[in-house]
């Protein structure tokens, strides 16, 4: 898997295909989670979530992990473009499945359109490892795709998601072949769903999970 090739076009592609819909999902709960000290942004991509976190959580230290060097470069450029302090942000170029955390604990974990990159066994490996480095009262905010349970909405979402996986498989050699719901793994790792907002006919969701 390598998102480098897509990095220069990613934001533009999102704008053309989804307008502001995905970004509304990213920010749905950011005004409500308690002010954190340490934030962990996983698979942050070109930095839209990062900018929102920097603006809302002025005193927080942010760790940003991504496997794509070019995505991280875009995120760095966004910080500079918005005149935000780069010293608050630690950028880590790593595959999350092999990343060895430094020993910090995180109050907020952010995974925007990231958990959908993984196969079930990868989620089962990664989520408990992230839970281990989260604070006892941590919040985990997620924006992602989903497949509604029934009806036309289900057919529509399945079709769109199928096309997305074909595209990302070709463009990035993504290992995941289909969308895996992370809910049961998050629950097993000690998190409880606090709030969920669905949008775009059930295709998108924003979640706020809290550590029990
Ligand atoms: C679909 S993009 C999402 C980007 C952004 N978070 C957003 O909201 O649009 C997935 C991002 O996760 C990163 N990624 C995918 N698999 C990864 C892995 N195993 N470890 C670290 N980053 C990964 C990619 O490089 C890419 O930047």
Architecture overview:
The protein has helices at residues 10-18, 21-27, 48-56, 69-81, 120-132, 151-172, 183-188; strands spanning 38-42, 61-66, 89-93, 106-112, 134-145, 191-199, 204-211. By secondary structure, the protein is of the alpha/beta class. It starts with 9 loop residues before the first helix and ends with a strand. Residues 1, 3, 26, 43-45, 49, 65-68, 71, 95-97, 112-114, 117 line the site of S-adenosylmethionine.
Helices and strands in order:
Layout: H1 10-18, H2 21-27, E1 38-42, H3 48-56, E2 61-66, H4 69-81, E3 89-93, E4 106-112, H5 120-132, E5 134-145, H6 151-172, H7 183-188, E6 191-199, E7 204-211
Parallel strand pairs: 1-2, 1-4, 2-3, 4-5
Antiparallel strand pairs: 5-7, 6-7
A few lines on this structure:
Helices cover 37% and strands 25% of the residues. It is α/β, with parallel strands linked by helices and 212 residues long.
Pattern of helices and strands: HHEHEHEEHEHHEE
- Which kinds of small molecule does this entry bind, naming each only once? S-adenosylmethionine
**Shape descriptor:** globular
Strand order of the largest sheet: 3-2-1-4-5-7-6
| Alpha-beta classification | alpha/beta
């Amino acid at each position: 898997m390598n998102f480098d090739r897509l990095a220069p076009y990613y934001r533009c592609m999102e704008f053309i295909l989804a307008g502001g819909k995905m970004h509304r999902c990213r920010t749905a709960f950011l005004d409500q989670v308690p002010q954190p000290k340490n934030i962990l942004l996983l698979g942050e991509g070109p930095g839209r979530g990062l900018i929102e976190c920097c603006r809302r959580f002025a005193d927080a230290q942010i760790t940003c992990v991504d496997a794509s060097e070019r995505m991280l470069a875009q995120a760095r450029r966004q910080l500079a473009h918005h005149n935000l302090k780069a010293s608050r942000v630690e950028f880590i170029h790593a595959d999350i499945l092999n990343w060895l955390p430094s020993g910090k604990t995180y109050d907020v974990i952010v995974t925007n359109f990231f958990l959908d990159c993984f196969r079930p066994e990868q989620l089962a490996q990664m989520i408990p490892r992230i839970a281990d480095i989260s604070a006892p009262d941590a919040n985990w905010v997620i924006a992602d795709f989903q497949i509604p349970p029934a009806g036309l909405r289900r057919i529509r979402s399945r079709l769109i998601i199928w096309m997305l996986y074909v595209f990302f498989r070709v463009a990035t050699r993504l290992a995941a072949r289909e969308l895996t719901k992370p809910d049961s793994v998050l629950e097993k790792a000690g998190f409880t769903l606090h709030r969920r907002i669905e949008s775009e006919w059930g295709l998108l969701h924003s979640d706020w999970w809290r550590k029990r």
